[in-house]
Amino acid sequence: MKSNTNVESLPLYIEIYNHYKDLIVSGKLKPGAKLPSIRKCALERMISRTTVEAAYLQLSAEGYIISKPGSGFYVCEVNYSDIQKPTKKKYTKVVNKKKPSYDFVSYSVDSKSFDFDLWSRYIKSALRNKERLLHYGDTKGEYDLRLAITHYVSEHRGVICEPEQIVVGAGVQSLLNILCSLIKTSSPVVFTGVDFVKGRVVFRDRGFKTIFYGNLTNDLSDFEKISPKIIYTSPSHTTPWGDVMPIKTRLSLLSYAKSHGCLIIED
Question: In this structure, is the dihedral angle defined by the CA atoms of residues 102, 171, 147 and 179, taken in order, positive or negative?
Fold first, then answer.
C-alpha cells in the first residue's frame, strides 16, 4: 500500500486502517494471521509509528485484530460470510418540477420583497446572545417568539391568548403528532378544502380514521352522518387557486363546532 500525501485525502491512519480492514474482511488475511509490527509497518511506509499505532488501535477497538502482549497484533476469528456487499440498486428518479411563470400560492415568501438586510441584522443580534445559544430552549418554543405571536394574532386575527397557550414546533406534521397524543377521542378526523395528504397520514398512523370532505358550504347537515369531533380546515386556502372560506361558512362551522363539542384545527 502506498501512502497518499494529498492533503484532501483521508487521514493517513484511516488509510492504513481501511487497507488492513479490507484485507481481513475479504479473507486475504486469515484468522490468526499476524500483522506487521508497528515499527516495521512505519519503516516500510516511511511514516510515524504513532500513525500506525492509531490505525492498529482502531482495528483492535472494532474487533478486527487483537493485541497479544509481547507478541504483536493478530487477526480475530470472525465470520464475514453473512455481510451483504453493497450493490448499486435501481431507484426511481425524482423529476424536478418546472418553475411556474407566475406563482400565486399564499404560503411561499416572495424573495424580491423580503427584507434580507433586516433579517440579517436580527440574526446577528440573536447570535450575540451567547449564553442562550449554548443551552436548550423552552420545550414549547422560545418565550420571546411566543410573546410576539400573541401580539400578532391579537392584532391581525382577534385571538386573545397568553404565551403559555402557544407551542412552537418544527412544522405542521411534527405539531400534529404532539396534538394526537393529547386528543382523548377516536372519532373521525374530517379534512376540508384542499386535501392535506401528509396531515391525514399523521392521524392515520396514530389510529384515527380520516375523511376528506372537500369544500364546505353553509349547510353542514352531512356532518351529522359523520359525527366528527375533529375538523381540519384551511379557510385562507380552500382551493388550489387560493380561494378563501366565506364568512357565512366560517360562522356555520363555528356554530356546528360549538354545539357538537368539536375541535377545529385551522391551518
Answer: positive
